[in-house]
Backbone:
């Protein structure tokens, strides 16, 4: 009997050691990183003009990106718009951006530097083409802009691209038939209010604050453009990305139309390149989809971002990291 006590003590000691090893192992598993490291470093996101939707979207997205990827420092880079955004990302001057599908298609069609490296992460919301005039203006359709002073967007913007196309579809030469003013949404409303231009083009999500604020200050109208969609499509090429759409009456409640405005719409795409780490693009895409409702409270167009349609990034190939994200949430 006395000999059994040491044997029992040894058994308990072994059991205690085993338990300690298990607990230590679980503690180490919890404390030490498992799997590939999280993305880190500085990421540049090329956005848009100061009062445009791209810039606001970037500002609202940044907190979600910072929370989801704490090792990544997000730097927002203002721009003139889609065309400049694509040139920056394609040539490595920025990492992510937003651009319209027509601008992307033209960049590829023109064979510009780095076009083959562009990739899509998500289809976002649609831009609506908005032609604003004073309520007392005689302009009722785009063809009435002949001999008028028209703000057509900055040279590197998607607005300039679509404004030139709309004018041609309306039978106007953008160089000879109007006085083209290279102004964007950051300055065009002020120019119209001051009487220094007769109209301005804008292409953006609904509502755009700068247009809404102008409508609150003075009577304006938004000119219907839906009659030009067929003519745009007839031009062929990248114009196939335009579609007929309607701006709802409540988009700009204080504009004097008092009714829905038929116009032209084109999709926006979140763009990167095949240079980026798939882990980073996966995380970026996840943050964009996850932040939809929060951003949508201020950028109403963002409410339309949907995981079921975001995967369709035509005219770009889907980025590999983004593909991993969509696979992870597929039902």
Residues:
């Amino acid at each position: 009997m006395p000999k059994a006590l040491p044997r029992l003590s040894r058994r308990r000691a072994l059991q205690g050691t085993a338990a300690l090893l298990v607990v230590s192992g679980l503690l180490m598993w919890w404390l030490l990183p498992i799997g590939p490291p999280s993305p880190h470093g500085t990421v540049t996101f090329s956005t848009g003009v100061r009062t445009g939707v791209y810039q606001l979207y970037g500002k609202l997205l940044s907190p979600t990106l910072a929370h989801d990827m704490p090792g990544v420092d997000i730097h927002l880079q203002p721009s003139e718009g889609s065309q400049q955004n694509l040139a920056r990302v394609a040539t490595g001057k920025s990492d992510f951006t937003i651009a319209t599908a027509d601008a992307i298609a033209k960049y590829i069609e023109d064979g510009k530097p780095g076009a083959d490296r562009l990739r899509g992460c998500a289809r976002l919301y649609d831009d609506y083409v908005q032609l604003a005039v004073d309520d007392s203006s005689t302009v009722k359709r785009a063809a009435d802009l002949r001999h008028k002073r028209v703000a057509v967007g900055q040279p590197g913007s998607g607005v300039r691209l679509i404004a030139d196309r709309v004018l041609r579809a309306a039978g106007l030469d953008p160089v000879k038939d109007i006085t083209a003013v290279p102004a964007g949404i950051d300055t065009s409303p002020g120019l119209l209010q001051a009487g220094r231009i007769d109209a301005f083009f804008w292409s953006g999500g609904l509502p755009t604050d700068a247009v809404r604020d102008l409508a609150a200050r003075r009577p304006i109208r938004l000119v219907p453009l839906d009659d030009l969609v067929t003519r745009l499509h007839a031009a062929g090429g990248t114009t196939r990305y335009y579609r007929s759409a309607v701006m709802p009456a409540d988009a700009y409640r204080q504009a004097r139309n008092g009714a829905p405005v038929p116009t032209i719409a084109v999709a926006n795409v979140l763009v990167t390149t095949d240079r980026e780490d798939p882990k980073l693009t996966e995380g970026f895409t996840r943050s964009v989809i996850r932040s939809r409702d929060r951003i949508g409270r201020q950028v109403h167009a963002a409410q339309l971002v949907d995981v079921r349609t975001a995967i369709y990034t035509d005219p770009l190939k889907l980025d590999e990291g983004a593909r991993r994200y969509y696979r992870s949430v597929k039902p």
